[in-house]
TrEMBL record:
Stated name of the protein: Hydroxyethylthiazole kinase
A Pfam family reported for this protein in Swiss-Prot or TrEMBL: HK
Family stated for the protein in its record: Belongs to the Thz kinase family.
Alphabetical list of Gene3D superfamilies matching this protein: 3.40.1190.20
Pathway membership: Cofactor biosynthesis; thiamine diphosphate biosynthesis; 4-methyl-5-(2-phosphoethyl)-thiazole from 5-(2-hydroxyethyl)-4-methylthiazole: step 1/1
Keyword Chloroplast annotated: no
Amino acid sequence: MTDPSRSLLAMRTTAPLIQNITNYVAMNIAANVMLAGGASPAMVHAKEEASEFAGLAQGLTVNIGTLDAEWAECMVLAARAAQDHGTPWVLDPVAVGATGMRRALGQRLLALKPTVIRGNASEILALAGADTRGRGADAADGVEAAEQAAHALATQTGGVVAVTGAIDFVTDGTRTARVANGDPIMTRVTALGCALTGVVGAFITSGPIFDSTVAALAYYGLAGEVAAKTTQGPGSFQPAFLDALYAMTGPDLDEGARISTT
Ligand SMILES: Nc1ncnc2c1ncn2[C@@H]1O[C@H](COP(=O)(O)OP(=O)(O)OP(=O)(O)O)[C@@H](O)[C@H]1O
Ligand SMILES: Cc1ncsc1CCO
Ligand SMILES: [Mg+2]
């Protein structure tokens, strides 16, 4: 593992253009989070331009949170274009186990081999076809319950899988890492997982995929800890979190990151 600051500084140096096909709930917070971190987000999803844009962006993220049939097609088109161009792309399988529509789309996107899959434990379990108590967008299973599912998905796609929660788990099928940064208040603000998916999409454009993913999670969780220290609840947490993402230095990150690898 390289120092997480290397990934952060590499990302900030390039300010990568990241196309995000994300949900209506997440669009604003995800774009603000990515800008605060130093990336250049674009929320582009129209059928007529989604794949063209995927050919010019440095990275793509696909989040199935607020789905409809046309958006599903845009997601597949953009992911296919990313795959054709060798552009790294991240799948966020929001509530993938909830309905037949989500399960079917999840499998189509999986077949396009996402560079990284980032989801909560219930979503990773459902995507891997395992039993989960989760129904909606919030996790109902602990991260540890999804470790085997994450491993299976990484082996299937050849990519990296990140399961987020109290202690995040990351695997590429061979290596594993755990990231113990973060604060429980982060589950009380909507779409912070979706916004993290955008940050992962930005980090992986400028370094090794596994190390960059782990660095993105540590950076994000640590900013959450910093913001939680100075605020009293979900409302005031949000602006403090953007400020913390913006202000975090490389040395801050290396000092505060709680990463263990095996
Ligand atoms: N109990 C917890 N303690 C500390 N940090 C947490 C906890 N739960 C989640 N986090 C952190 O919150 C961030 C978002 O992850 P989470 O797993 O909540 O995403 P999510 O369920 O996909 O969210 P959403 O769907 O609302 O966008 C991550 O940085 C994660 O580490
Ligand atoms: C609340 C919610 N519903 C669909 S997407 C979303 C954002 C968190 O995943
Ligand atoms: Mg989510």
